[in-house]
Design a protein that fits this description.
Radius of gyration: 18 Å
Mean pLDDT: 80
Shape: elongated
Number of helices: 2
Distance between the termini: 38 Å
Helix content: 10-25%
Structural class: alpha+beta
Largest sheet: 8 strands, mixed
Number of domains: 1
């Protein structure tokens, strides 16, 4: 399964100022909201996280492996909750220089978006509307605070160019097959 990165505008990503700790909250994913990838739309079903492996999620900055992790579920510094709105996160950032900088940027509103990396277990396509609905995630790898989205919309994918092109090619092949079956059915009537 391919690993995808989903970028979501945070509804209320914020730094909580009423404590000496660096605590941030926000949504890494939002349900039933259409994301336009340019060539296809996508929607996350509200039950997509029900059976996902979320045993060890790392919080990162821009999905970078070269930057130290900001928080982690395994260490207890990252918590998540799937509520009626989406995948909500709450992180207590350890006292590091990188985390201090990121916390300040979140508090000042400079960083206000999140993203998550995942694999899909089950999905369905509506080729008439060019929409993919993610029914079930397989694994959630990370949630990330991001600064520059790949597209200037509120909800967006941030994939490498190679991942983007491969997914687009696969989708176009599936759509052509669907259109061919539809045509064959019409001709057989």
């Amino acid at each position: 399964m391919e690993k995808a990165v989903k970028e979501i505008r945070l509804v209320d990503m914020r730094a909580l100022d009423n404590t000496d700790e660096m605590i941030v909250e926000g949504y890494a994913a939002v349900f039933d909201t259409v994301t336009n990838l340019g060539w296809m739309k996508e929607v996350i079903d509200r039950h997509a996280f029900d059976n996902a492996d979320m045993s060890d999620i790392v919080m990162k900055y821009n999905h970078e492996n070269s930057v130290l992790p900001m928080a982690r579920t395994r260490g207890g510094t990252l918590q998540f909750d799937v509520d009626d709105h989406g995948l909500k996160i709450r992180a207590k950032l350890p006292d590091t220089s990188v985390n201090k900088d990121i916390y300040t940027l979140i508090r000042e509103g400079v960083l206000s978006k999140m993203s998550f990396a995942f694999t899909v277990k089950s999905e369905e396509y509506d080729y008439d509307t060019d929409t993919r609905k993610i029914l079930e995630f397989d694994k959630i790898f990370d949630v990330s605070v991001v600064d520059v989205p790949a597209y200037e919309t509120t909800e967006i994918y941030a994939r490498s160019k190679e991942q983007y092109e491969e997914e687009k090619r696969e989708y176009e092949e599936k759509k052509m097959s669907f259109e061919k079956q539809k045509l064959e059915l019409m001709l057989s009537l």
